[in-house]
Amino acid sequence: MDAIIVCGGVPKPDDPLYPEAQGRPKALIDIAGRPMAQWVLDALEKAERVTRLVAVGVGPESGLTSAKLARFVPEQGGLLDNVLAGMRVVSEIAPGEMLALLVSSDVPAVTAEMIDWRVETAQEANADLDYAVVERAVMEARFPESRRSYVRLKGLEVCGCDVNAVRLALAADEKLWSRILAARKSAFRQAALLGFDTLFLLLTRRLSLERGERLVSRKLKLDGRVHLCPYAEVAMDVDKPHQLALIRHDLEGRRTYSH
Fold it and tell me: Is CATH 2.60.120.760 correct for 2-258?
């Protein structure tokens, strides 16, 4: 499967990561001697189930490298435009591909094993949208100081992963993507996107993961699948200074161990 790594987005002065970025893309913030996105690219390159890579939001001047990197796509002006541009480029360079992996550049602790697990689950499901979540217990066992936000479901608390799969034909449906991306950081916006009945179920903690999967498929008129991911790293994105410090410490240890 081909993968799209989304590297766009320059933190503004009111962003907590602005002092680290200093006018450059967030993806290029240094972590243990490498740009954040390079850690993700290295994992994707080592993953056996990933064929080609498309990097969106940066150019060759970024210094990002990978033997599997087929194309740089310049910043398109926003997350939605970057995602859609990446999907269209994959369709162009690999006409026979039906699915692509969407990978955020801010999960630098991810490994090749985790990437291969996501590709395998997505290929088996063969859905329009293939999403993964991590249980709170799994996240806090691995990163107890992460202070992530969680969605409370029936008997379960989860946070979303940043390595997911999408059917490339959906690139033509810009309205769908606008709605999904607008709701991606808020559980209540996500529920409202699917209807007030879903919001009620969420508020009363009566919405199970399985029922949520069915509601997504029906309300958005597509085949949506959700998986419980056993790897906290796939959901450990870097949005705040304390998360950056946590990941720097973690990956510095990994780099020291590898040497």
Answer: no
